[in-house]
Amino acid sequence: HTRYIGDWSSDVCSSDLWGDNRWNQVGNPDFGEPYSIMGFTTPIMADDRLRSSLVRVGAGERHSCAVDLAGDVVCWGNNDEGQCNAPSGAFVEVAGGGSHSIARRSDGSIACWGDNTNGQCNAPGVTFVQIAAGRWHSLGLRGNGVVRCWGNNSYGQCDAPSGPFVEVAAGAYHSLGPRPDGSVACWGISTPDGLQCANVPDEAFSDLACGENHSVARTANGELMCWGWNSHDQLVPPSGSFSTITSGWWHSIGLRSNGELVQWGWRGPGGSLENPPAGRYLAVAAGHYHSVGIV
To answer: How far apart are CA 123 and CA 158, in angstroms?
Structure first.
């Protein structure tokens, strides 16, 4: 999932990427020779010609995408299903799924590209105000608060309840939406234990993020609460107040109001918690085992 913070017209924005780089998803966008670094944990700066113009970022399973000031989308990393073949257009938001990508234009129309085995790229021909991408499904929030879902529905992750909603978030096999009063609806479930939509806190939240099988929510005062699987401490968030949250496969990231980046969850080889670059972050997105941020 992507979040916007700060004044893009006055900030000089560069891109930091870190984590698993086996598919060059934390490497150089396709603006010339790719970086030769193929390690798992070395942070890599995006190309000089791109780094000063990024405004939005998105991270998929093994690929990354970004929107620049002109509204163009550039993607890099694994492209076995065409998930990095971004179309042209004036885009304002981008999200990465398992092996597909989705972007929203300034007029609210959306484009999907990449793997369409489960219909995750068969977007309805209507306008949206926000989008999200799961592993094999996609979601869009309409201006009237109605959620539309398309793609794989093996676990009910596309069976959105009636709205209105103010946001959508997508995990591997579940989806989330906060209502105007801050209460959360969760739909979809995964094997073996079905914890993704169990024990959702009875609280009012202002922001949500989905990982593979866990979820993170931010209260109005910026504190975090998590539920779902806890196999890698993904339900153990840091204390304090945060302004932005995003979740990857088994890890999550929070940004504080001063741009400080804090991560928790997966710490294994190639894990996204290894060597996060220092800096004041304006936006960040978490992928499978990698992350991408704008500083």
So the answer is: 13
Question: Is the bond into 87 cis (omega within 30 degrees of 0)?
Answer: no
Convert the pLDDT of each residue in 248-280 to its tens digit.
999 999 999 999 999 999 886 555 566 677 889
Phi, psi of 49 (to 5 degrees): -75, -15
On the CB side of 120, CA atoms within 13 Å amount to 32
Strand segments (E) across 6-109:
15-19, 44-45, 54-59, 63-68, 73-77, 91-96, 100-105
Question: How does DSSP classify residue 80?
Answer: T
Whether 248 and 289 have beta carbons less than 8 Å apart is answered as: yes
Output the pTM of the full model. Answer: 0.84
Please state, in angstroms and rounded to a whole number, the distance separating the CA atoms of residues 20 and 39: 7
> Alpha-carbon torsion 96, 107, 156, 209, what sign?
positive
| Structural contact between residues 79 and 117, judged by C-beta atoms closer than 8 angstroms | no
Indicate the residue type of 154.
S
CB 50 within 8 A of CB 67: no
